[in-house]
Design goal:
- The radius of gyration is 16 Å and the shape is globular.
- It starts with 5 loop residues before the first helix and ends with a helix.
- By secondary structure, the protein is α+β, with helices and mostly antiparallel strands.
- It contains 4 helices and 4 strands.
- The strands form 2 sheets. A two-stranded parallel ribbon has the order 1-2.
- Helix 2 links the parallel strand 1 and strand 2.
């Protein structure tokens, strides 16, 4: 995962504090930081496979009509909740599966 510096974190409009592809410890640290900095908090499945879709979600207080309205809602912190559990499927297992599939595709491409 990409590391962010303090400057980027402070400049961020909101922080992802629950990610379906990170460990519970990393998510707890992100949640702690987001709350300490008083930033709006969001969550995402970070899905690479269909079985990962919707495992982790940000529940909005209103339905956005377009991407700009979604950004406005997130920046204002109009979030009704965060839902999900990344303990069900180990993030490291999901990464291993992704890596294996990508490697297979590269091998197949090289054989063409």
């Amino acid at each position: 995962s990409q590391k962010m510096g303090l400057r980027e974190i402070l400049e961020a409009d909101f922080l992802e504090v629950l990610n379906g592809r990170t460990t519970a410890k990393e998510n707890r640290l992100a949640m702690y930081l987001g709350k300490r900095l008083n930033k709006p908090l969001i969550a995402s499945s970070d899905a690479h496979f269909t079985f990962e879709l919707g495992r982790i979600l940000t529940i909005l207080s209103e339905r956005p009509s377009d991407p700009e309205e979604l950004r406005r809602i997130l920046v204002k912190g109009c979030i009704a909740g965060i839902k999900g559990n990344n303990e069900i499927f180990t993030p490291r297992l999901a990464h291993a599966l992704s890596f294996s599939i990508e490697t297979c595709w590269r091998i197949l491409d090289s054989l063409k």
